[in-house]
Amino acid sequence: MVSALYQLIPDERKRSKAVATRKIPAGTEFVFHPLVTVVNAEESVCENCLLFGEGSLRCSRCKQVRYCSAECQAESWTKGMHKHWCKKQRPDFPSDLKLLLRLALALKQGGPLAETFDELIAAQDMLSPIHQVQFEHNAKIIHAILPHWSEADLITIQAKNLRNSFTVTDGRLFDIGSGVYPLASRHLNHSCYPNCGVSFRGPQMMVKTLVELKEGDELCINYCDPIVPLKRRRKALEDQYAFKCTCEACTGGGWFETSRQGRKTADEIDVNAEEALNAIFRSSISEQILLVLGTDPDNIIQARQKVFTTLNIPPIFLNISVLSLATSRSSSLRTSANWSESASYGLYVLAYYLLIYPPAYALVGLHASDLAITMWNAGGWEGMEYIIYAGILRSSDQVLLLLGLCVPPNIGGRELSAARQFAPSFCGLTLNDNLYHKHHISPELVLDSRSAYLDFTEPIKLPM
Ligand SMILES: [Zn+2]
Ligand SMILES: [Zn+2]
Ligand SMILES: [Zn+2]
């Protein structure tokens, strides 16, 4: 048993899996503590607790790292091993070495999380030659500081870290560092169509259910971005995590088969992304997709099938290079305040996301929220366009409140705030209006009462 909500059961192919022991509501939160974390160079977050500090302190000696408080500075000097690269005049000590040094020290000190780390898979025989060379080089440096570990041990530790470390992000999903969360690695397998999402509050990892889980459902997160095309995605998973993905998005039938074939066909077309986007704008296909998705938010898979059976989707729509161009255009036009042009690109990106990502996926909520602000700035939305605009706001409200990521934009005054509560939702999420209002008034209150804060302190043993 791991918790009242899920348990680890043995699995032939994946070693073990975390399975819901009863119905788990969408938005339920599990908290995982780090064994160690490291902040990327040049981030304005505290080196020790990863929080954005007000009036940040800097290390007076090397001026390279920031702290939120004197306590964090003191802790980082010893426990965080900062003295080892600061004193030795090595301000360029790279993040991967910092992490390895902290990890080696934490493993030497032991404890439940260190024991769980020991159980993780290293798959050392599958290391690429580049990793092998880099790990040997790092092992020499760390062995000189911490002779407790042999160079061979340090290579194994790095291989385990490669297969199991997480990128730590802020509330807008920007990378701020990386961390080792042994229990999350041990419990949660990957899916390219995950039912749980990962976010961070300082160094704590929050895993939240994106949909309601039934008893027996496996809890999965995504180790790589599901928007990456199948071939590249599977290669990335094999290279870094040493497994072949057999999730429903990779091998499933029905909608997943339609989606795979659609994307494969789209990516094989030699497109001029610029022309493709102009054709997409002329056809208003993105708007039509949103409206069809809004007709069946209870069953997003069925709604997506309906998109493909009732609309004439141009094959280039799902091409990944068209998406990349639209994403960068949308944000650069937004930066230069070309609101309505930015909104056209952003609408296509949203429609694409809604066909691929699982319901309540964080990136979809954040993109919808940015797009709503862009559309508000552009102004002049009428008729069907106004309904889409309000629906985008509603979708962003639902996802962001469910995930507790950040408060949705308070824009548009009374008329729009009424519209956004009754507009169609495009994100495959239904919150009843009562709950929705509660979220709206006080998201913390509702999220807290439905959250299961589980403090894992014991190492987890598989049931016999
Ligand atoms: Zn701090
Ligand atoms: Zn320093
Ligand atoms: Zn997959």
From TrEMBL:
Please name the SUPFAM superfamilies in this protein's record.
Answer: HIT/MYND zinc finger-like, SET domain
InterPro entries xref list: H3K4_H4K5_MeTrfase (IPR050869), SET_dom (IPR001214), SET_dom_sf (IPR046341), Znf_MYND (IPR002893)
Superkingdom as given in the UniProt entry: Eukaryota
Q: Where is the SET domain?
A: 1-224
Q: Please give an example of a GO cellular component term from this record.
A: nucleus
Keyword Metal-binding found: yes
UniProt keyword annotations, A-Z: Metal-binding, Zinc, Zinc-finger
Q: What is the name listed in the Swiss-Prot or TrEMBL entry for this protein?
A: MYND-type domain-containing protein
